[in-house]
Amino acid sequence: MYDISTQSETPICTNPAEQEKPGIxxxxxxxxxxxxxxxxxYMYDLVTGKEKQVCTAPxxxxxxxIDGNYIVWQDKRNSYRNIYIYDIxxxxxxxxxxxxxxxxxxxxxxxxxxxxxxxxxxxxNIFIYDIxxGKAEQIITTNNxxxxxxxxxxxxxxxxxxxxxxxxxxYNISTGIPTHISDVSGYSHPAIHAxxxxxxxxxNDVYMYDISTDTKITISKExxxxxxxMVSVFVIFCLAAILYLRKRSQE
Length: 251
Description:
By secondary structure, this protein is mainly beta. It has one helix at 227-250; strands at residues 2-3, 8-9, 19-25, 28-33, 40-45, 50-55, 61-67, 70-75, 82-87, 92-95, 102-108, 111-118, 123-130, 135-138, 146-152, 155-162, 165-172, 177-184, 191-193, 196-200, 206-210, 215-220. The protein contains one helix and 22 strands. A hairpin with a 4-residue loop joins strand 13 (123-130) and strand 14 (135-138).
């Protein structure tokens, strides 16, 4: 852990096994840990300085996320992946999906989102779970595959294959209205915080969209060689090779 105010680094877990996918909120740090020969979920309390096993059930527990009093993860204890939620204050866990192959959960406030593979139409769809009511539902029912969900406040964002092309979409939880944000090259893995959505394309260019002003800006752009330049270099190389071989044949 790195303390921004003191500019100091502190080890949280020194177990020789692999630790991945760390997350932090408030006084709690979470991660997935392979010390038991599979991926399990562990938590560290910054106040008490103590480590705790959150879930060590059979199978892998991965892709853990934390917000407030809750931790979520994808769980393969039943041979296929389901989404579980853990209440830190009551130290209780709950399975919130009953469908085959659900993965990549994200949580903010009162909502959990994830993607589930629908065997009926053979594609991934986005679902949302209301912690207060205990109800889950598919947030949109278009025929396009949807993956990589993220959530903050009243909005959910995801990658979607739309007419053969990748695009970023946003869903307003209050109104139930989806919005096309931007077409992208390759899957973008969008992230959202407050009114801002950020993503990258297959060239590692980074973009941001401001929901309040409906504007898109470029954050960073990777330098790359144009296809025209590459073709020109290839042509010059070929001509040079031909001239060289012709000269050798005349000697």
